[in-house]
């Protein structure tokens, strides 16, 4: 197997996009339901399609014995195999796997993709685990004039995987496009590419890979030299999903929608952890007017900024935002500290403001264009608020706790031109209360992402012994004594000794009376009963979930859950020693409900007020413990005893700052079992 030109250069920078189909194709669906297999098994249907494939599989596996970034060997090898070049058997064009795959992805007949389903499942499972590359401009090109196919203002979809370099000089080198001859350069603004260098056959290049079904708007088309054409594309979110996720439970399929994009796609993010700095240092703030102070925030591992307006106070942003003709989303957690607040949460200019008028949300685009909400926001309670402007739809929408509270269409704001954006932006002008985790994005976030940001307090996938929170708030946990095993989805945490535990601190809203919440997870009981989930702070026990020893039934124990401060025990079904989905919800309207396998197994109308209602000590943020609880609160009761230690496996723990409906829980169970 000799070394050829194709093996020495990354041909993917030059291939695959100039022959995109002229028509819109059907979305890429169906592959996610196949099992996750080894690379050898995943490629079996391709052996008659791609010559000499077993040899390249063997090479890819040998080069992936120590996979990076938490991937399995087979997932890493699937990426490595995709990046490999090999010559065609007839010495004409390269016959690499990626060439066959990308040609098939661009076919109108979607049945041609079926032999690829196993490989797509493995390949995409690995890719979506990789960190998302920062928003940036990347490059690719071709030795021909493609400008006629890309008129400014049009939208295009690239149906194949596409590769890019972050270095224009790499593309202009002689082994790629060079500096002479007819060429088309694509300058592309991306927001969700994957950097595959750690798994690539081209380990010295920062190759960025975009997934099939990537949607673009053509921003401009230049011809700076007779033989050079430059096309500027900007990635956009398509109106519908064009590529099925590789596993249906990222996220709670259809229930919450997609997980929020990581904070790296925000234009600015203010955690207010003792300062007014932007996480990215592009839009740092400084306090103007009066003084501010900081205290424990909604995300209890950090702080929040408090403005009391004893003197008019605000945070001035040193560098304003480029939102001309742009979508905008502003989100924050807020707490009003007095009634009838009139103040701005954020303002880009004197025209474009968003905040509260008499405790009701508002957006102002100029003195004559205003949007008002419907609901009065309560004081001394945390709420998530979001303000979204979709420039393409000319639609403004406001949200409280993930639910739309007001909207207005046919809005053309003054900031659609350069007017009025030279003055500094401001946070909190006239606002009386606390603001935490404020973010500004130059995208119009969808309803499901707003709901995710507002209501998913934490999400723990429990993969690869990682205790990290993959939800929007970063409430990472700690663990000891646990082991990893095959889970309901990927890996799971196994608790097989009396010292095994996982715990995560910082659930502020659980310390607030009358606040709805839900817990949802998968469990596999292995015969040793006991408490497996405890919600408590140092002085107060809120909830214990476990399996009783006398009858092996699932129980939820709630100390001090009635007005007379007596406890409530909700009894569920006998727990089998197989994977079972369990959920617990509480709300003031529906009280305590215990679910397993998507069905209501027990409920108690007596759980009128939980122990977080009982006084000041209960307002301290709560900790969620899986496995052995060793805290100081009194959590004994409900037929669960401290001498008993649960042994079993837990997976996919979600913590919600709202009550899930029965229909949502059934949908969750059905999605994972389909």
TrEMBL record:
<keyword id="KW-0521">NADP</keyword>
<dbReference type="Pfam" id="PF13385">
    <property type="entry name" value="Laminin_G_3"/>
</dbReference>
<dbReference type="Pfam" id="PF01129">
    <property type="entry name" value="ART"/>
</dbReference>
<dbReference type="InterPro" id="IPR013320">
    <property type="entry name" value="ConA-like_dom_sf"/>
</dbReference>
<dbReference type="InterPro" id="IPR050999">
    <property type="entry name" value="ADP-ribosyltransferase_ARG"/>
</dbReference>
<keyword id="KW-0328">Glycosyltransferase</keyword>
<dbReference type="GO" id="GO:0016779">
    <property type="term" value="F:nucleotidyltransferase activity"/>
</dbReference>
<keyword id="KW-0520">NAD</keyword>
<keyword id="KW-0800">Toxin</keyword>
<dbReference type="GO" id="GO:0090729">
    <property type="term" value="F:toxin activity"/>
</dbReference>
<dbReference type="GO" id="GO:0005576">
    <property type="term" value="C:extracellular region"/>
</dbReference>
<dbReference type="GO" id="GO:0106274">
    <property type="term" value="F:NAD+-protein-arginine ADP-ribosyltransferase activity"/>
</dbReference>
<keyword id="KW-0964">Secreted</keyword>
<dbReference type="InterPro" id="IPR000768">
    <property type="entry name" value="ART"/>
</dbReference>
<dbReference type="GO" id="GO:0003950">
    <property type="term" value="F:NAD+ poly-ADP-ribosyltransferase activity"/>
</dbReference>
<protein>
    <recommendedName>
        <fullName>NAD(P)(+)--arginine ADP-ribosyltransferase</fullName>
        <ecNumber>2.4.2.31</ecNumber>
    </recommendedName>
</protein>
<comment type="similarity">
    <text>Belongs to the Arg-specific ADP-ribosyltransferase family.</text>
</comment>
<keyword id="KW-0808">Transferase</keyword>
<keyword id="KW-0843">Virulence</keyword>
<keyword id="KW-0548">Nucleotidyltransferase</keyword>
